[in-house]
Structures are given as structure tokens and as C-alpha cells.
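Lab notebook, bench 4. Continuing the backlog of folding jobs that were queued last week. Each job is logged with the same field layout so the records can be merged later without manual cleanup. Today's entry covers SAM-dependent methyltransferase, a 278-residue chain. Filled in by technician R.K.

JOB TYPE: sequence-to-structure
TARGET: SAM-dependent methyltransferase
LENGTH: 278
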Amino acid sequence: MHQRAVRNLARLDTTQARITRIFDAAAGGKNNFLVDKDMVRHFDQVTPALTTAARAVLQFLSRAVHHLAAVEGVDQFLIVGSGVPSGLSAGHRLHDIARRASTSPDLRVVYVENNPMVVTMAQATIEPFTDSVRVVDGDLREIDEMLRDRVIQTFLDWDRPLAVLVLSTHCLDDDEYAHYLVKRLRHAAPNGSFLGLLHTTFDGVPPELLPAIRDMLAMTLPRLAIRSREEVRSLLDGLDLVEPGLVWVPQWRPGGHDLACGDAPHSSGNYCAVARIP
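JOB STATUS: finished
OUTPUT FIELD FOLLOWS
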């Protein structure tokens, strides 16, 4: 993992937009570059929804973590590909939400990221101030190596239930590997664990806008994984979905007064689900 982190840092390209940084820029975060902010502006010229959609995603993540900690009693989280969202203010980050919602003194949160900028910033600004959070360099596309990481293996207790939140499914453009990844996580996680999934879709895109969006993605993010509801549902076959099941992100246990995309859930562009691992 260390060698891969060094290699990725050496290859850090500030001239090419990346989807995690684009969402961070859209949500008002700091883990992004000018090229990512420019991409947000380009998308908004086609359809002014990306900024609101990014907020909807962050709100779902916050609600999911709170529910798992407060209602399901989860005190261990493996959060993969969230970007450690810098659009969330201090005290309202995912590990902060888990800490407040959990009654366990043994709460543990591990963030896994493959973006060297995100990893470096999170390690510098989070780890020194809490003993309950670790940030490691890892990639869903290298799931076996990721699960062998020393921190992931030792910081979390793999004999007790945990929640695995898989949020960077945009990189899983190979269907066979995407199904393998879910099965691998199901096999690795102890009984009673949970799997959370977030996935981008074109299902809610108006037909007249779809050609322009496809063309823009082909030029800027050519390997972005886009799946229909049926395709996302197939990834979750055999799992017991927590109510309300597979839905648009604003529809997953909504609460509060500032619900991004609440009036038009499809404009969030993302499905989500939380499932129990038998």
C-alpha cells in the first residue's frame, strides 16, 4: 500500500478532473483543483443540478452513518471512496456523526481513498486529533490488496459486525468485477454487518439532455460507471435491504428541513441502499 501511495502521489495530475474531487468542489469542499471547479461550471451549463446533487449525496451519507450508529448499533465503519468530504464542516464530518450517534466507547472509523491529495489532507487534519479515525490509501479496483492493508486489518475488529460503505462505484465500469467486489466484501465482513452502496445513474436525466451529458462525460470522464436501477439492484442480490430499500439518495430516510433534491429526487443522479449482510 505504501508503494502504491508513493506512486500515486508522484503521478498526481492537477490538470485532469477526477469525479471525487468534482463532487467535493460542487459541495463547496477544499479537496479539489481549479480543473475540478471548471468541470462543475461546465456541467452546470448543461444542467444546473450538480451542486445540489452533491449536497444530496453528502446528506445521504450523513443520514446513513447516523442510522447505522444510532439505530443498528454499529461502532465500526469502513468508508471507501467518500473523498472524506471537505464540504462537511468540522464537527459534522462522517466520523463526527458516528461518534455522536454511537453509545460505544470503542467507535472506529477507517476512510479508504485512492486520491493522494485527499489522503494526505485527511491524515494531516483528522488523525492527529482523534484516536478513533484512520485514513489509508486504497482502491476498490484492488479490493484484495485493500482488505489486506495492515491498518484495515488491525484497527478494525473483524470478529465483530461493521458497516462497509462503498461510495466510489463510479470506478467500477466492469460488471463482472463489480459483482465480484460485492461478493468479496460480503465474504470478508462478519455476520451482522452492513453494506452501503451509492451509484450514479442516467435514469433521471431528461432525454433531451442525455446526448450532451454523454458527450461531456466521454471527453472528460470516459470510464465513469453508469448503471440503471435494475443493474444496481442486481449487485445487491441476496442481501436484506434496510427500509426503504434501493431509492434515490434524497428518499433514503429523509429528515430535516434542508433536503437537497427533495422536490425532484431523480435530479440527484444517484441511487443508494443499505443492506444487512447475513
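OBSERVATION: The longest strand covers residues 194-200.
SIGNED: R.K.
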